Amino acid sequence: MRFSELGLNEALLRRCESQDFTTPTPIQEKAIPLILGGKDLIGCAETGTGKTAAFILPLLKKMMSSPRPGIKLLVIAPTRELATQIEKAYESFAPRKMRSVNLIGGANINKQTKRLKSGVSAVIATPGRFLDHYERGNLDLRNIEYLVLDEADRMLDMGFLPSIRKILALLPEKRQNLLFSATMSDSVKSLSYTFLHDPEVVEVSPENKPAGTIEELAFPVAANSKTALLLNLLEEQNFERVIVFTRTKRGADRLAHILKARELSAKTLHSDRSQSQRERALNDFKNGKTRVLVATDIASRGIDVDSVSHVINYDVPKAPEDYVHRVGRTGRAGKLGQAITLVTPIDELAMRDIEYLTKQKVERIVHPEFGRKPIR
Predict the structure, then answer these.
(1) Domain boundaries in the chain?
(2) How high does pLDDT run on average in the chain?
(3) Lowest CB count within 10 Å: 55, 104, 170, 373, which one?
(4) Could you say which of 3.40.50.300, 3.40.50.2000, 1.10.8.60, 3.10.20.310 is the CATH number of the domain covering 3-203?
């Protein structure tokens, strides 16, 4: 199937063609006709499957034919990085007269207010900053026709449910609702029942399984040898572009400090960094100025960086699903990638939970200098 068969108009097809969008991904092929048909929708799909275009393209077509002025589309996302990525996608497809605004924390609120007052058709926001603007009287929500909650499972993990409920209560009752989530947990199902009307469910990656382009390895290691093993891997191996995941912000800062002391180019990405620091770290990583990005799970979703050669789990994630999201930062768009997890004795149970979820064993590699025999 081609995009020209999905019911989009000529203007959007030209935009698709200019960006080399010719063959839709599975989520786009399934979701676009349903959205054009006016259905509420639950989409189970992860970042990297093309889900942003799956809702942006059909909603833009509908917005282009709507005579109503003002804000027609509201997209709520859990992180600043994902909201920014969605807004960039929107701007790349939308005609000039249908402008958008990105309402995220850490950015200049006065500039956002000015953009809102100049007139926009779409608002892409994180929950807290959206409510901040509403309380300041900056948002006229009367003409909203479309609501998208992206990565709903992540928003619930981050404790945004009270904010989401407040936002839902502010919107016009008559609207089309789209919910996207990587997992269909009980909490996501419960949320969907509160605002979706007879939704269609589209699943394109029902299995919690890393892409086949990712080689997964686990290095059994003593807890006090983890940092030494990480340094050895980064210094001895020719890793081009690496994301190192830690469980905590303090752990990320500590590791980055150690890497810089060893003259390894590294920056951190976590929620205690200012917006400008986060943007600089991400941009330097994308353009190759920084070789290693040390991050918490804030970077496990919504970060679309080409050619990440390696993901290293310095800390095994608490939730098995987070492992799938972390390692999914590599091996994207058909390219090969490698995911390495450092496994201490206390992590063995969490590692087994990951293998149970993904239904596949991760190969253990015992390093000759820092390794220990795996507990099986």
Answers:
(1) 3-203, 214-364
(2) 90
(3) 373
(4) 3.40.50.300
